[in-house]
Amino acid sequence: MFAHRFNTALAGILTAASVLAVAPAAEARIDARKLTCQQARSLVQQQGAIVMSFTNTAYDRVVRNRQFCNHGMITKPLFVQTLDHPKCHVGGICIEDPWKDSMRLLFRRN
Questions:
Q1: How far apart are CA 52 and CA 33, in angstroms?
Q2: For residue range 8-64, what is the model confidence (pLDDT) as tens digits?
Q3: Is the whole-model pTM more than 0.70?
């Protein structure tokens, strides 16, 4: 009887904790459509890296430059819709370096 109550209480606590953990992450996203192009660019420049929403469901981590990416990654320019511009260059997104493996093969010693 005690074990059942304990498991039920534990499940409730874990559910509440997971809801609270997700809520701040959703609020932390900055909606590019609610900013001017200059405001969006400035946020990325000031912060270095931010999570930016582009639609109700699409978002990504936007970075100022390659220093904010993991090792072996490069930046790809990102253009998004803002209040005043349909294709505003706000920064970049981190992607795997497409040349990483080919350069390794090129300089490989036989």
A1: 10
A2: 544 444 444 443 444 444 457 899 999 999 999 999 999 999 999 999 999 999 999
A3: no
Domain, as residue range, for 94 = 29-106
For 101, other C-beta atoms within 10 Å of its C-beta total 11
For residue 67 the two structure tokens come to: 């220093």
Residue 11 in any domain: the answer is: no
Element (H, E) at 6: helix 2-28
What is the spatial distance between Cα 35 and Cα 13, in angstroms, rounded to a whole number?
37
Q: Does residue 24 sit within a domain?
A: no
- Quote the number of domains for the chain: 1
The verdict on residue 5 lying in a domain is no
34, 58 contact by CB (below 8 A): no
